[in-house]
Amino acid sequence: MLMTNDLFESETTRRQLLTLAAVGGAGLFTVAGASTSAAQGRGDGSNGKPFRLTVLGTTDLHGNVFNWDYFKDASYSDSRGNHVGLAKAATLIQAVRVERGADTCITLDAGDTIQGTPLAYYYAKIDPITRGSKHPMAEAMNLVGYDAAALGNHEYNYGLDTLHTFESQLNFPLLSANSVDWDSGQPVFRPYVIKTIQVPGSKPIRVGILGLVTPGVAIWDKANVEGRVRFPGIVEQAKVFVPRLKAAGADIVIVSAHSGADTSSSYGDALPFPENASTLLAEQVPDIDAILVGHAHREIPQRLVTNAQTGRDVLLSEPLYWGMRVTVMDLDLVKVRGQWRVASSSATTLNSNTAPEDAEIAALLRSSHETVRAYVNSVIGTCTEAMSAATSRYEDTAAMDFINLVQAETVKASLAGTAGDGLPVLSIAAPFNKNAAIPAGDVTVRDVAGLYIYDNTLLGIVLTGAEVKDYLEQSAVYFKPVPGPGTYPADAVTNAVTTNAPNGTPDYNYDIMGGLDAALTYDIDLTQAVGSRISGLSYAGAPIDVDGEFVVAINNYRQSGGGSFPHVTTAPVVYNRQVEIRQLIIDWVTARGVVDPPSFASVDWRLVAGTTPLTITP
User: Fold this and answer.
1) CA–CA separation, 19 and 36 (whole Å)
2) Average pLDDT, rounded, for the chain
3) CA separation for the pair 593, 382 (Å, rounded)
4) Name one GO cellular component term (predicted).
């Protein structure tokens, strides 16, 4: 159940938060060592008294309304004490509006809204909004009163029909200047909006808000967008639309960019544009005053980037994902020769763990929340032994074997009577969620959903034995080198830093490959250089045939180029029914009734130094 202790009356909530702000406690305006001053009053921009415009921002909400972990069926918690959910973020937003004046505030989101929790999945697939239901994120965001939101890449996961239906349920514009029609090149969503802020005794301020999304959508959701929507580069498209905003009368320009601040790509050379381009945007496109950053799931309270052409600073801020933080950007505006411009700017982030949930949002969406809880807690089968994914990053586990079993069986069954019938079938799976576990005894939908937390669909492609080895070599980039045999902590060997992953290779870019009946085995030698780590690669007890053909069960993210794995984007596709892998696992358990790990689990791969297995500790 929802924790009703957290659902305070709105006015009480505001008073409590504003009291915290007034005394300078660890509450509203003191977050991670950063702070922001109270409003400086409503100057008219003349006589040295600036007018303060406040931009409030969220990003990467990923379907989180409440401070709730549907995979655990409990309140969300982590080791850093974070809380999640738009209901808590809404309380912070409203408190700032009360303190600053609502008519001096603009509220934005930087994308990835409708995917990421069972709540989001339920209203996309089980009771889809395309059939008349209301999306909880739309209802919650409408209550918050956003002025605009940028599209994120995950908005495209469920196809354009779902996305346009979500758009139609919003009371504010969904922006993307670089989601353009395949043929005409014209934006298929509104590229920008101009908001007017009234200034007592002076001319109003016209605020241009531009939305941009990472162009990686073209790869990650290729099946949903190819032939329909293209994604020009963020910098390239901003160079077109920022001048249009200025020509349309915008005094200042704010960009809501679903693209990280630290330049990188996870798709190598597959596209000419970087995935994370917000810093490049600030450096290379004149006349941008501030950027609300999203996509990277990092917290950047404030970053100032100098534009190379104008020499002016551009303010960047990225709040932490899932509603853990709210960005507050303060832009102090003055009139120069009768025109508004930014004289100074600063930003901070507010911590949602200081706030109770907004009572109005909680009351409106409690029924939807309980409906989804009932769905994810429904029993669909039993398991003879517990399976955990906790150590899947560095050792073979039954949990990953189970995913590969379901995927491989699904693809193998589809090949009957086709040209691929009789080819050996392999499968890949990544350790998405180290907290995932399927208990002994009853198995529920949420147990399976926790094992496979993304909405990826399944494909089957054909690779040669040599290409299988290349694929595994790319996967082994995930590991850091070791000097020799021994015992190492997991963090000392996983999440290696690379050019494309300057913050460490994410777990979802490490693929474990398996075959039916334990047919594929290999070692990963961490004393060897990247590209030469796979040893002992065998199929059915013999060295793999480098010229032989194998069907590989693979998810759509990987097959379309996510993670820059070799050969997959051009490999022949022999299976693609657009079915979510998570749903396939749910259906497998429902149909069979019993999951029996000893019947399919085996140790098929090892981390080694030479021929000596390594010991890895958590």
Assistant:
1) 15
2) 91
3) 6
4) outer membrane-bounded periplasmic space
Instruction: Give exposure, 140-162, as e/b (b: 16+ Cβ within 10 Å).
Output: bbbbbebbbbbbbbbbbbbbbeb
Give the pLDDT of residue 11.
45
φ, ψ dihedrals at 254, nearest 5°: -115, 135
Burial class (CB in 10 A: 0-12, 13-18, 19+), 469: middle
Instruction: Please give the C-alpha separations between residue 48 and each of 38, 104, 203, in angstroms, as whole numbers.
Output: 18, 18, 16
The answer to whether 595 touches 381, Cβ cutoff 8 Å, is yes
Q: Do 314 and 290 meet the contact criterion of CB atoms below 8 Å apart?
A: yes
pLDDT digits 0-9 by tens, 375-392 = 999 999 999 999 999 999
More confident of the two residues 420 and 310: 310
DSSP reduced 3-state for 61: coil
According to DSSP, residue 572 is labeled: P
User: Cα–Cα distance between 199 and 406 in angstroms, integer?
Assistant: 62
pLDDT computed for residue 199 by the predictor? 95
User: At 292, is the secondary structure helix, strand, or coil?
Assistant: strand
Each residue's pLDDT tens digit, 471-491:
999 999 999 999 999 999 999
DSSP secondary structure, 329-340, as one string: EEEEEEEETTEE
* Token duo for residue 180: 């353009």
Helix 359-376, helix 86-100: angle, nearest 10: 170
DSSP secondary structure, 471-532, as one string: HHHHHGGGSPP-SSSSEEEGGGTSS---SS-TT---GGG--EEEEGGG-EEEEEETTSPTTS
Hey, which residues does 594 pair with through a beta bridge?
382
39: which DSSP letter? P
- Token pair, residue 583, equals 């749903």
Q: Which residues pair with 424 in a beta bridge?
A: none
Q: Would the pLDDT of 588 be above 80?
A: yes
3-state DSSP assignment of residue 262: coil
Q: Give the Cα separation of 587 and 437 in Å (integer).
A: 18
The structure tokens 């504010």 sit at: 172
List of domains in the chain: 4-372 (3.60.21.10), 378-617 (3.90.780.10)
> 108 near 172, Cβ under 8 Å?
no
- Over residues 82-107, the mean pLDDT reads 97
pLDDT of residue 99 exceeding 50, the answer is yes
- With a cut of 70, say whether residue 93 has pLDDT above it: yes
The span from the CA of 565 to the CA of 563, in Å, is 6
- pLDDT at residue number 267: 67
Task: Decide: helix, strand or coil at residue 223.
Answer: helix
- C-beta separation of 212 from 234 below 8 A: yes
Which residue stretches of 24-76 are H helix? none
What SS3 class is residue 402? helix
Return the amino acid letter for 141. Answer: M
C-alpha 532/C-alpha 470 separation (Å) is 9
Tell me whether strands 512-515 and 425-429 are parallel, antiparallel or unpaired.
antiparallel
- Cα dihedral angle (366, 368, 369, 373), rounded to 10 degrees? 130
- Smallest CA-to-CA distance from 364 within 56, 7, 116 is with 7
Say if residues 37 and 99 touch (Cβ distance below 8 Å).
no
**Contact present, 253 and 245 (Cβ < 8 Å):** yes
CA distances from 396 to 143, 276, 386, 393 (A): 46, 33, 15, 8
Give yes or no for a contact between 126 and 155, defined as CB atoms under 8 angstroms apart. no
